[in-house]
Amino acid sequence: MFLYMTKIQYELDINTPVEQVFEYYTNPDNIQKAWPQDIVKESESLSGSKNEEGSEMKVKGEFMGREDEMILEVSDKEQNKRLVTEQKNGPFKSWISTQEFNQSNGQSTHIRHIIEYELPTTGKIANLLTGDQAKNKIQQSLQQAAQTVKQKLESHSA
Fold it and tell me: How far apart are CA 56 and CA 133, in angstroms?
C-alpha cells in the first residue's frame, strides 16, 4: 500500500522553548498563517478540542491552480513531543504529516517535520501535475512555513 508514497522531510531549530513551539505548530488556526498564501487559504478546527487524538481540522487550499480542501485527523499526539495528522478526505490518495519536537539546551527546540503522501492516479490533481512538480511545491511550502514559524516565534520570545 505504501509502495508509491513520497516522503519529504525538513528539520530546523527554533530558539524558543518546546512548549511554545508545540502549541503554535499544533494549533489548526496557525496553519494558514504559516503556509504560503498561494497554498493554504483557510484552516480551522472541526472539533471542539484542538489537536487531541481523533479531532479533525479542515484545510482549504489551492493545489496547482485548483481549489480543494483536505480534512485531517489527529492520529497520534504526545504533548511537546509529537503530532501526527492523516488526511481523511481530500485531494491526495494519502497524506500523513508527522511533526516531532525535541528540546535542546532549555531554550531551543528542534523540529523534524515529515510529510508522506501519495498522489491520486485520477482526478483533479493527477491531471495537473507530475510527481516531481508536486514534491517540489510541497517541499518549498514546508520550508517556507517552517521559516515563517521560526521568525514569528523567535521575534516574540526576544
Answer: 28
Q: Measured between alpha carbons, how far is 69 from 66 in angstroms, rounded to an integer?
A: 10
CA 80 centroid distance within chain: 16
**Under a CB-based contact definition with an 8 Å cutoff, are residues 43 and 24 in contact?**
no
**pTM for the model:** 0.85
Cα Dmax for the chain: 48
Kindly provide the residue ranges of all beta strands, DSSP E only, lying in the chain, ordered along the sequence: 6-14, 40-45, 56-63, 66-78, 82-89, 94-104, 108-118
Any long-range contacts for 81-89 (C-beta under 8 Å, 24+ apart)? 81/22, 83/22, 83/25, 83/26, 83/51, 85/57, 88/56
Domains and CATH numbers, the chain: 2-157 (3.30.530.20)
Q: Is pLDDT of 124 > 60?
A: no
